[in-house]
Amino acid sequence: MTPSEGARAGTGRELEMLDSLLALGGLVLLRDSVEWEGRSLLKALVKKSALCGEQVHILGCEVSEEEFREGFDSDINNRLVYHDFFRDPLNWSKT
């Protein structure tokens, strides 16, 4: 099983890991690489936080807002605040 398959599988171990990460509170930094993709873990953390009633800020610089929001239902998407650095990374469109 690859790391991304394991993250998508949603086994008890992954859910336990998510719970322990969220219990710490504060900032969680994920590192994404070819060997260990982090997007599925990130989306799982976002979903879990949003379902707990938290407002989640996303600083998007690699994928568009639409692509990031794919797969989330409207309850979760309503809790996301997306800061788009994907289309205008230097903020040139706003003077």
UniProtKB/TrEMBL annotation:
Location, primary (coarse class): cytoplasm
An example Gene Ontology biological process: tRNA wobble uridine modification
GO CC annotations, alphabetized: cytoplasm; elongator holoenzyme complex; nucleus
InterPro entries assigned to the protein according to its UniProt record, in alphabetical order: Elp5
Pathway(s) this gene product operates in, as recorded in its UniProt entry: tRNA modification; 5-methoxycarbonylmethyl-2-thiouridine-tRNA biosynthesis
Family: Belongs to the ELP5 family.
Organism, scientific name: Pan troglodytes (Chimpanzee)
Keywords: Cytoplasm, Nucleus, tRNA processing
Descriptive protein name: Elongator complex protein 5
Localization: Cytoplasm; Nucleus
